[in-house]
Amino acid sequence: MGKSVSYILHSFSVGKVAIKKEDLCKYTSRETWFLLQPVDSNSEVQGKVHLELKLNELITDNGSVCQQLVADGKKIIEGFYLQVTRSSSYTKKSQFQVEEEDIEKLEVRIDLWNNGNLVQDVFLGEIKVPVKVLGNDSFQAWYLLQPRENGNKSSKTDDLGSLRLNVCYTEDYVLPSEYYAALRNLLLKSPDVQPVSASAAYILGEVCRDKYDAVLPLVRLLLHHHKIVPFVTAVAELDLKDTQEVNTIFRGNTLATRCLDEMMKIVGKHYLKVTLKPVLDEICESPKPCEIDPLKLKEGDNVEVHKENLRYYVDKVFNTIVQSSISCPTLMCDVFYSLRHLAAKRFPNDPHVQYSAVSSFVFLRFFAVAVVSPHTFHLRPHHPDAQTSRTLTLISKTIQTLGSWGSLSKSKLVIFKARLFNRLRLCNYNVISLYSEMYKRAQGRTRIGKKNFKKRWFCLTSRELTYHKQRDKEPIYTIPIKNILTVEKLEESAFNRKNMFQVIYGEKPLYIQANNCVEASEWIEALCRVSRCNQRRLSVYHPSAFLNGNWLCCKATTENTKGCTPCTAGVPADIQIEIDGDRETERIYSLFAINMPKLQKMEEACGSIAVYQGPQKELDDYSNFTIEDSVATFQTLQQIIAIVEKLNEPHEKYRKKRSSSLYILKQTES
Asked: Quick one: signal sequence residues (predicted)?
């Protein structure tokens, strides 16, 4: 049985649509009506099990020799058990007789059940293995779980209706990395191309019918190569050229806003979780009525109580967002910093635009969306019930209003401005979080001595940790927050000093002594909060120092020895961004190849613009494209087309080889 993709309608099961994997390509990029099939728990199986079967020779009580079958399956989830079943014609529990000539016809059927359910055991799937594969040796393999033989049969003949699906199926063959060098380099040059509309990355967004198809691989590739900030800055500046009203900044679905959306989803995933999940859990698990629409109020509802409940929730969510600013990932801060300055440059007479450009965007397109649909962002396991969903919608709309300056009256704006300016640090790129005079140990010293400790002024911002000889003077050393790998306490025995902690950011840790235990805890907590969304955070560290040729904690004699103690904060598993650059480049190649006619049409349009010397006008051939510099755009298009045509060759070889292999396989089976 081929693998299939199933879509089941919830919250109660109406029916299902199942499409075999090999058939997905038949329905891609078009809407198709599918008949709904009944949902049968015995047929809804997935997963696989590792099974080991072995035949052992045994001598029975009467002296005859028989074969004992031993089955051993690896448990995938606690609560599974294996059961070897036999036909009811066999009466003995542990053995049964089989004629020699029937051995070849036998098969072992193994059912998997979950007995963790308090009501009844749940069928998880079954596998069947022919006995003939055993021979005299043990046999082991992974098996895909299958439905029961009668699992797809149903006595129901009722018409369950149909479901219209728009299937999008893609299959990429990723070549070795060297094949993509030319395309990858051309894409990575995009932030530096003038104008940016003539770059390969921007052209990709122009020729794709759905910009999301282009944005996903493009953002991931630029993130992987640390080019996302300059590219987003460049396309955002292009957006602002066409923006006439302050209230409409970054409101459209352009390449810039789509890239920002996708970047925040990827980079801000963990930030969103640590910020909103606790308060959303409270709202969803103990919901209070918040309905304030007179048309939706029920008899006996107290609208004033509902207003107070809503105010409480909004205030809690808003304060949580504001206070989380120091934990905002550095990459997001870099982008917001650029947006601030671009907006201020575009609208120099509006003193608030540098804040509203960021606050409206981050509230409208990041936090508000996550509040109204927490399950989509993995903040909640399931879609909330109707009442909770309505409460989340009201909170989300209010948050959007607070973040959208243009929707507030002048009197409310004055009050809100004071509150937001004082507390919202997301828009303030380098806000000072802590400032203290403490002792630091000279880095690189390998012996203990009082002269190694010097008093310095330490300053922590959302961007960097610095220390200075004198307060308010230029720093003598700077550590970017994004480079911090972990922050931990240091054992008192290391230097015979109390209240010490270490900032690990490279080969040599920075050792700092606070004035008291409260100050030390405050600095450790602040540094952990501001760096907890960093990538490459350590999972282990050395709680003491490397002195006189060895680590005092574990006695290891090599300074770069891996840490011996787990970090107290641990490493959040979901903040590591795993990106395969070649796979994303392959996806972009596929998009260019599919849209080759548009590339050629755009190339012709550039030629028409360059040749045409009359008054500027919109021609049908290129009115849908953004072409600021026809010569630069034409040159980039020529490069793209040449690269795609060159990449077509190894892909065509692969397709022919695959078709030949499939043909031989079918001939063998027949």
From this structure: none
